[in-house]
Each structure stands twice: as structure tokens, then as C-alpha cells.
UniProtKB/TrEMBL annotation:
<dbReference type="InterPro" id="IPR055170">
    <property type="entry name" value="GFO_IDH_MocA-like_dom"/>
</dbReference>
<feature type="domain" description="GFO/IDH/MocA-like oxidoreductase">
    <location>
        <begin position="140"/>
        <end position="262"/>
    </location>
</feature>
<dbReference type="GO" id="GO:0000166">
    <property type="term" value="F:nucleotide binding"/>
</dbReference>
<dbReference type="InterPro" id="IPR036291">
    <property type="entry name" value="NAD(P)-bd_dom_sf"/>
</dbReference>
<dbReference type="InterPro" id="IPR000683">
    <property type="entry name" value="Gfo/Idh/MocA-like_OxRdtase_N"/>
</dbReference>
<dbReference type="Pfam" id="PF01408">
    <property type="entry name" value="GFO_IDH_MocA"/>
</dbReference>
<feature type="domain" description="Gfo/Idh/MocA-like oxidoreductase N-terminal">
    <location>
        <begin position="8"/>
        <end position="127"/>
    </location>
</feature>
<protein>
    <submittedName>
        <fullName>NAD(P)-binding domain-containing protein</fullName>
    </submittedName>
</protein>
<dbReference type="Pfam" id="PF22725">
    <property type="entry name" value="GFO_IDH_MocA_C3"/>
</dbReference>
<comment type="similarity">
    <text>Belongs to the Gfo/Idh/MocA family.</text>
</comment>
Length: 361
């Protein structure tokens, strides 16, 4: 009840398409409320408000600065192009606004470190917008993955994230422009693959990263499709991922252990909002004469009270309220998770730029 009486008040910097989903998530979360939206013009912000049937109580601003100067705003969601993240995330932190930042978080880990330092110095919470971390399915998969008797040691991980956008995407979308979102498919889709792989490895950084020679670039030199190999020398673990704007919709993650394995087809966006599943197998073997298996995959289904986007906002708002009420400091774990992903993202980009040379981390 206290959460509903004293919700975290959000401001949004920019009217990107993803902001529509986060507006809905803020509305669905019991401990948050949308207080203000902004764009580079008041007219565009008003159009966004009308299109999304926002309450008349939501303030509409024609500049991002106005949101940051609004003393009623507790936290900001920033869905701006990656090239603008450093400027606006640092300014938000300096204005004591908690920062929910869309991925990829920055153009390189140096920029992200400056963002994280600003958040730490100003005592504000940081989190990136990777929503799948907050689905209860993710926690259940982690339980099984962490059970040495059921899963054993992680040996191999595979992930893919791909989709084919309409033709106009390749001409107009910021994700195809080197000066706006220079990572292209790597930053947009590959961020999820990298995050899932590191999640399976408890966020331990790999030894080497190598982009395979089959990378496709557009005329701006932006990655449209790439395949990557990642290796942990000490563990002997290998991961591969494929991210692309040129292949049919995929959101797969498979993790193979010494005793078990699991596979999820819809990691990033579940097929359904109210429940999600994954397939798990432990102790599988071939029957006599290898004519079949001794078992089939088990489907594990998890039901969730809220969509994963709202669960993300709910958790972020819980942390913000804890800071506001002086019960706790910012949870730096989320910044650490983002940083490991950014380090690997940077390594992949360096490998691509060098003609597929192996990059050591």
C-alpha cells in the first residue's frame, strides 16, 4: 500500500518506439508512475502522449533538460541513441535522477565507466533495460543451472537473436547509422546474446573473443549480421552466438552441461506475457543399440504476476525507494552486469574491425 501511495515518479527522455512499452510497464508496476515525457519538440511529445493515451496529468516537455530540472521526477528512462547515452545519463545522475538506461549502454566501456561513476558519486541507482533478467523463468533456469547434481559444469553455450525488419529500416533506422548506434545488430540483438552467455557463466569475463569472417556490414560500416566465438580458457568452456538483421526471428539460448542441458526459444520476449517455459534435461542417455533415448526433454513452465517489463520497473523502483527512504545505497550489481556485457561487446567490435582477429580480454 505504501508503494501505491508513494510511487517512484518517472520521466522519459525521448519518444523512441521502445518507450511505448516502458510507459505501459511503468503504468502496470505497483510502485511507479509516469510523471513526464519529453522530446526534442513539444509537438512530438504531445503526439506521443496522444498515441499512447497517456493521462492528462503527465507533463509534456519539449526538451530533455526540462525533465531533469523537474524536481518531482525521481528517475529517468533513457531510450536515446547510444551516442547520446553518456551525455544524458551523466547529466541525469548529476541532477540526482536514478537512471534506467536502454541498451547497449554506451559506445565503449570507458563511456559506461563514466556513467557508472556519475551514478555512484551522486548516490543514484543504475540499471540497463534488459528485461529478461527480471522474468521469474530466468531465476528458475539459474536454479537448475547452479545445481551440480542436475547440471554439472557448463561446457558449451549457444545463443542467437535475429529478425528481418522492413526495407525502410535499413534506410532510416538509427541502428543502421554509424554516428548514432554504431554497433548495429551487435548492439541491438547481440547485447542479449552476450548477456545470456555471461549470465550462464556467472558474469566471469572470457579469455578470448573472435568474430567469424562471415560478418556483414552495410554501406555505413555498421554490423548487420555476425557470428562470434567466445572461450574461457580455465574452464574449457566455449560459447557461440549469432546476431542479425538479416535472418528470421530467433531468441534462442542453449546451455550444455556435463550432466544436463536446457534450451529456451523465446528468451528476450516470451511467447506469452503471463507465462513462459524452457526445456530441461538431466541424466539423458541412449537406450540399448542406440535406438532411442531413456527420456524426453522436460518442459518447465513458469507463471508470472506481471509482464517482464513491469517486473523490471518494479525492481528498479524498489531499489530507488530504498535509496529515497535511506534504507540502503544503490545496488551496484546491475552496473557490474552491464559492464561485463559492454566489455565483451567492445571486444567483438574490435575483432570485427580487425578482420576477425582474436581479441584477448
Amino acid at each position: 500500500m505504501d508503494d501505491e501511495k508513494n510511487p517512484v515518479r518517472f520521466g522519459i527522455l525521448g519518444c523512441a518506439e521502445i518507450a511505448r512499452k516502458v510507459c505501459r510497464a511503468i503504468d502496470l508496476s505497483p510502485n511507479s508512475i509516469l510523471h513526464a515525457i519529453s522530446s526534442r519538440s513539444t509537438g512530438k511529445a504531445k503526439q506521443f502522449a496522444i498515441k499512447n493515451s497517456l493521462s492528462e496529468l503527465v507533463k509534456v516537455y519539449g526538451s530533455y533538460e526540462e525533465v531533469l530540472d523537474d524536481s518531482s521526477v525521481d528517475a529517468v528512462y533513457i531510450p536515446l541513441p547510444t551516442s547520446l547515452h553518456l551525455k544524458w545519463a551523466v547529466l541525469a545522475a548529476e541532477k540526482k535522477k536514478h537512471v534506467l538506461l536502454e541498451k547497449p549502454t554506451a559506445l565503449d566501456v570507458g563511456e559506461l565507466d563514466r556513467i557508472l561513476e556519475a551514478c555512484e558519486c551522486n548516490g543514484v541507482q543504475f540499471m540497463d533495460g534488459s528485461m529478461w533478467y527480471h522474468h521469474p523463468r530466468t531465476a528458475r533456469m539459474k536454479e537448475l543451472l547452479s545445481d551440480p547434481n542436475l547440471f554439472g559444469e557448463v561446457r558449451m553455450i549457444y545463443s542467437s537473436s535475429s529478425f528481418v525488419p522492413p526495407p525502410e529500416f535499413f534506410e532510416n533506422n538509427i541502428r543502421t547509422k554509424a554516428d548514432l548506434d554504431g554497433f548495429g545488430a551487435l548492439g541491438d540483438a547481440g547485447w542479449y546474446c552476450i548477456g545470456a552467455i555471461l549470465w550462464a557463466m556467472n558474469y566471469k569475463l572470457p579469455t578470448t573473443v573472435t568474430a567469424l569472417p562471415a560478418t556483414t556490414l552495410n554501406s555505413n560500416g555498421v554490423i548487420m549480421s555476425t557470428t562470434v566465438s567466445i572461450h574461457w580458457e580455465q574452464e574449457g568452456t566455449v560459447a557461440t552466438f549469432y546476431c542479425s538483421f538479416l535472418a528470421h526471428e530467433t531468441m534462442d539460448v542453449s546451455v550444455l552441461g556435463s550432466k544436463g542441458s536446457f534450451h529456451v526459444e523465446d528468451l528476450i520476449i516470451p511467447y506469452e506475457e503471463s507465462s513462459a517455459s524452457f526445456n530441461f534435461t538431466s541424466g539423458a542417455s541412449f537406450v540399448d543399440l542406440h535406438l532411442g533415448w531413456n527420456m524426453t526433454e522436460q518442459e518447465v513452465r513458469i507463471h508470472n504476476e506481471l509482464p517482464q517489463e513491469a517486473l523490471m520497473v518494479k525492481e528498479f523502483s524498489r531499489l530507488v525507494k530504498g535509496i529515497k527512504d535511506s534504507r540502503m545505497g544503490p545496488d551496484t550489481r546491475w552496473g557490474g552486469i552491464s559492464r561485463t556485457s559492454q566489455v565483451v561487446l567492445d571486444a567483438v567490435k574490435a575483432s570485427v574491425d580487425s578482420g576477425s582477429k582474436t581479441v584477448y580480454i
